[in-house]
Specification:
The protein is mostly beta strands and 799 residues long. 9% of the residues lie in helices and 50% in strands. The protein starts with a helix and ends with a strand.
């Protein structure tokens, strides 16, 4: 523990040192470049703006499958949530858990690269996601609200050479608007909406201010607040006393209880702010300093219970059967410094960032205890059982990258760089059987039970990574190009876990485990692109992705001993084969891509065999394959009609049986060869259509319609009845109508017009259900819901 604490305490010092070094290096290089410019002819090439391939390129010239959504499109469609955004991008699947704990688990799935079940989300996982996410240059999954965005880029397929660990399926990049030098502007937006099932209106307001400070310095301020009314009613929560113990109206030993109903319990309150300073003293040097913060306060789950309570009463629409409220809170702070210097022959970029992301939540686990028969076996069927899990997570990191990207039209283009990350992860869980000590003290006398805290779990991890990466592109001709890339990495990690049980006096036990290890490896990429004509390109890619390994640090001796096979999990990797055709015809752009991905040593977030500690394991292999099609174009007089069509067919399944690491005889597979990977629909379809009318006096009227369809999905990679379920297919239709001028925009919008449930995950009855025989009359099972039909109006003014 001491070693991890010391490393965390040095994070701010490391950040300051890294910033100072990178600043000095770039300023010295900038002075050298300025001297060179006095004696050499100025290059005609522009300063490279870092984008998907780390250089400025049109989307049609990127030789693999990439989608980009502009911030203007997000604003027009009233999209502020990442789950809704991903449903508007062809071939992307997402587990929509609502806002509760939305920063804990990255639910994005690209090309079927997922084996984790949907019934996760309450705690930080051991393995990193299969899709990496970036905010500007910082690798972070924080699920910021989507405000003042320049564009979002979605890179499909493994991106290991340029984006490192966690890019098995692809990479999502959120590019923020920069301050604009020389232009003052301000914008205020407010919105009101009503959601099916909600008792009150929701509102959302924000402002954007771009402030020129001098001829080469500008600042940009963004801030706002979101207040969404909940839709889910927690209809049978215990009435609690001041100690969070269920009220016993007829005495502690009686079976009587008091339920109450809490309406719209899953309210959402989000406050967000961003300030950025852009400094561009010359045409060859610029620096961008950004600070971004967000706090979330969420009242409960946007999840409804199907079935009945312990009295046989059936739950209705938008009703949750938990016996306690389940709020969550989080706060994320991100500071980054990005600097670029144009050396003439290349652009040198430095990115230094530090973030602190932490949160907490309360979850009801009584149904889990009941379905395991623990309430009867260990807790004597005491009345009014309430198993509460209080969890926290934290993620702090210092990230530094230096990158050199060639400029101009050369026979040989290159991207080379070095990447360093120092990351501290924390997770805790304190489980309580509320009221158990009071009951035992009354029933048996004092001294048998020390507290209601039956389990405590504290985990701290530290990861450091040093990587060298690069890509070289050779132009055999104006039409034919080959790219070769690689990444060499070295990771070190420390994992420390402390556990204790303190419920019974005779069973008060503490265990701890400490482990450290390291791993090194290399990744590769090969790509070709051939211009068939000036508007058509054929491309092909073989690329590799990986996720870092780690240690579970479970105890190997004592009361909570687990098999040593759980101690470590290795990195997993995949190889992607892709062939595509993209181009344009008149006013229509298209892209068609065929892919096949082989995935080895799959990491699965799961629980240990004996005591159910959070852990990751390796096992088996899988293969995904399919086709992705995207078409975008205009038609009609003055191209007033704009349409988009996206379709993906993905086949994702295991290619061998999947076993627990302790199943050395391979007699009880978790899942069988040929099983479908969870979360990914076989078919997805996106259709959008908009039309713009030019009105008088500079006003425009635009109407938009969007359709998303996904076929059925699997809830988990498991043959167990506790987890295995096929989720139904669904469609979501959105509509908006806007009237706009140069300064004003007024929009009427409807999301989920047909009010589809759109469920992408479930906690099953067999896993969390009711059990009146054990005095549990609530029901912890629930299914996830897409946002129900929401009608809203927004108004913005820009000056």
């Amino acid at each position: 523990m001491k070693q991890c604490t010391n490393q965390r305490s040095q994070a701010f010092k490391k950040s300051a040192v890294a910033s100072a070094i990178s600043t000095a290096l770039l300023l010295n290089t900038h002075l050298w470049a300025a001297e060179q410019s006095e004696s050499e002819e100025q290059s005609d090439s522009k300063v490279i703006t870092v984008t998907a391939n780390r250089r400025a390129q049109s989307i049609q010239s990127v030789p693999y499958n990439i989608s980009a959504v502009s911030g203007e499109s997000l604003s027009e469609a009233q999209i502020t949530d990442a789950a809704e955004l991903m449903r508007n991008i062809p071939g992307i699947a997402v587990v929509d858990r609502g806002h509760r704990n939305s920063g804990v688990i990255n639910g994005i799935m690209i090309r079927g690269m997922n084996v984790d079940g949907a019934a996760l989300g309450d705690y930080a996982l051991s393995a990193v996601p299969t899709v990496s996410t970036y905010v500007n240059e910082t690798p972070i999954y924080a699920n910021f609200i989507l405000k003042d965005i320049e564009r979002v880029e979605v890179l499909r397929g493994p991106q290991g050479t340029l984006y490192g660990s966690g890019s098995l399926g692809g990479t999502v990049r959120y590019i923020l608007n920069r301050p604009e030098v020389g232009d003052f502007s301000a914008k205020v937006t407010t919105a009101l909406s009503s959601t099916e099932g909600a008792g009150d209106l929701s509102w959302d307001t924000d402002f954007i201010l771009n402030l020129p400070v001098s001829e080469n310095i500008a600042m940009r301020f963004v801030g706002g607040k979101v207040d969404y009314s909940g839709i889910t009613d927690y209809v049978n929560v215990y009435q609690l006393d001041e100690n969070r113990i269920p009220v016993a109206p007829d005495g502690i030993l009686s079976d009587s209880l008091v339920f109450e109903s809490v309406e719209d319990a899953d309210f959402v309150e989000i406050e967000h702010a961003r300030v950025s300073v852009f400094f561009e003293p010359t045409d060859s040097f610029s620096a961008l300093l950004t600070y971004q913060t967000q706090t979330d306060s969420i009242g409960g789950r946007r999840q409804q219970t199907k079935g009945s309570n312990g009295y046989g009463e059936v739950y209705g629409e938008y009703e949750n059967g938990s016996i306690m409220l389940e709020p969550s809170n989080r706060e994320v702070d991100l500071t980054s410094l990005e600097m670029e210097v144009d050396l003439g022959f290349a652009t040198l970029t430095s990115s230094t960032s530090q973030y602190d992301h932490k949160g907490d939540s309360i979850s009801e686990n009584t149904g889990f205890y009941a379905q395991n028969n623990w309430l009867a076996a260990f807790y004597y069927n005491y009345p009014r059982p309430m198993a509460e899990a209080t969890r926290t997570y934290s993620d702090e990191a210092l990230v530094q990258e230096l990158r050199l990207v060639s400029n101009g039209d050369n026979k040989l283009d290159y991207v080379v760089g070095v990447y360093y990350q120092d990351q501290d992860l924390g997770a805790t869980q304190y489980s309580y059987l509320r009221g158990f000590q009071n009951w035992t003290d009354t029933a048996w006398g004092a001294g048998y039970v020390v507290s209601d805290n039956d389990f405590a779990y504290v985990r701290n991890q530290n990861f450091t990574e040093l990587s060298f990466f690069g890509e070289l592109t050779y132009h055999f001709s104006d039409e034919l190009r080959f790219t070769f890339g690689g990444r060499n990495f070295h990771n070190e990690f420390i994992n420390e876990t402390d556990m204790s049980v303190g419920l019974y006096t005779s069973f008060s036990i503490q265990d701890s485990a400490y482990f450290e290890d390291e791993e090194s490896g290399s990744l590769f990429k090969a790509n070709f692109s051939l211009d068939l004509d000036e508007n058509k390109m054929l491309y092909g890619t073989i690329s590799e992705g990986y996720r870092r390994g780690g240690a579970n640090a479970v105890p190997l001796s004592g009361t909570f001993a687990e098999d040593a096979a759980w101690q470590l999990y290795d990195s997993d990797s995949n190889i992607n084969y892709e062939l595509g055709l993209k181009g344009s015809l008149n006013s229509t752009r298209y892209n068609v891509s065929l892919f096949l991905v082989d995935w080895e040593d799959i990491q699965l977030n799961t629980a240990t065999s004996n005591w159910g500690f959070f852990a990751a394991q390796n096992g088996g292999s899988a293969q995904t394959s399919g086709i992705e099609v995207e078409i975008d174009g205009y038609f009609g007089e003055n191209n007033a009609w704009h349409y988009g069509v996206g379709y993906a067919n993905v086949s994702a399944e295991l290619t061998e049986n999947f076993y627990a690491p302790t199943d050395t005889t391979q007699s009880s597979p978790i899942s069988l060869d040929g099983a479908k990977l969870p979360g990914t629909p076989e078919n997805t379809l996106n259709v959008s259509l908009s039309h713009t009318n030019t009105l008088s006096n500079g006003w425009y009227w635009t109407n938009r319609m969007g359709l998303y369809y996904q076929s059925e999905t699997e809830n988990a990679l498991s043959d167990s009845e506790r987890f295995n379920q096929t989720m139904d297919s669904f469609s979501i239709v959105d509509f908006s109508s806007s009237v706009a001028s140069d300064n004003w925009v007024a929009t009427l919008w409807i999301k989920n017009l047909t009010n589809e449930e759109g469920s992408t995950g479930v906690f099953k009855e067999e896993y969390m259900g009711t059990s009146p025989a054990q005095n549990y009359y609530g029901n912890g099972s629930k299914e996830f819901l897409a946002l129900p039909r929401t009608i809203g109006f927004s108004l913005s003014y820009e000056f």
